[in-house]
């Protein structure tokens, strides 16, 4: 059992994997948000639920990719991505700009910032890492 726990912990700390997943997610979300085709992908009946789920995923992947990065640095980037998607959609004839979508993106980021079991925390430092330790 200790081996399984060690393997899961190692996986959580494999930042290159999470960064690759984040890159794939950004590309996929950007594509799905701007395509005119209706693809047979599983989605929620409400577009807002899709936004919330997408931004929960992006936030968690960002936290796993850079566990020491404080939220003040990546939250504006994630929200900017959401605003950017809406700005692009405003210029597409088959999509619309929506402030409600941006609000749903923000709600997804807030949920993604909640404490998740096993997720490394940026503020969690060992005593031996402090400069005052002997």
Report what the structure shows.
With 134 residues, the chain is an all-alpha fold. It has a domain at 46-115. Helices cover 63% and strands 0% of the residues. It has helices spanning 2-12, 15-34, 47-65, 71-90, 99-112. Helix 3 (47-65) runs antiparallel to helix 4 (71-90). The model is unreliable at 126-130 (pLDDT under 50).
| Secondary structure category | mainly alpha
* Parts with pLDDT < 50 across at least 5 consecutive residues: 126-130
- Rounded to the nearest angstrom, the distance between the terminal CA atoms is 35 Å
Oligomer: single chain
**How much strand?**
under 5%
Proportion of residues in helical segments: 55-70%
Largest sheet: none
**Count of extended strands:** 0
Number of helices: 5
Instruction: Give the mean pLDDT.
Output: 85
Identify the overall geometry.
elongated
* Order of H and E elements: HHHHH
> What is Rg?
18 Å
Would you spell out the secondary-structure blueprint of this structure?
Elements: H1 2-12, H2 15-34, H3 47-65, H4 71-90, H5 99-112
